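Input for the complex:
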Amino acid sequence: AQKITQTQPGMFVQEKEAVTLDCTYDTSDPSYGLFWYKQPSSGEMIFLIYQGSYDQQNATEGRYSLNFQKARKSANLVISASQLGDSAMYFCAMREGGGGTSYGKLTFGQGTILTVHP
Amino acid sequence: KAGVTQTPRYLIKTRGQQVTLSCSPISGHRSVSWYQQTPGQGLQFLFEYFSETQRNKGNFPGRFSGRQFSNSRSEMNVSTLELGDSALYLCASSLVLGYEQYFGPGTRLTVT
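Predicted:
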């Protein structure tokens, strides 16, 4: 079973508008972390935002916010005021466990290609 | 602070050869993870090292191996290369296990 599902292969957004990238996850571990990364065409993965399973509030980092709905097991990324430089592949990832052997392992979704139009 | 560096950035090898990739983590980071990225399989976890010990390993054959040195630098080795090993190999470092991972630019390996 897919642990991380990103159902949108591609998304388009107009410059300066907001966009939501979807991510659902599957785990039975009560302790986990959710991450979003951006991968431009250059290939480097850029860390954007992190949400812990016990965090009470949604994470925010500048124009990025994470809409965390624990009961639905979703962790959508919201990018406000899109910029042309936001055009890239976006990956949702999960870390399971609170100290177990898989603690450091990230499981990634298939990614969503975001294209920002001027 | 310098980011994660990976060398070489590009590599072309022939089937049957072996290859060693290098990763230098962010200064102070003690955990290094390796991932393989291909168009078909996406991003897959290879292994993770912390304090020179392999803490976790993904589902890859024994041809894939790695190690970490006392200065936290890490190397991964792939022996008896196959065409399917062509991929972008990404290294990531984190302060300790479980913290945010910061990725390097990757090594693009092409096997012919």
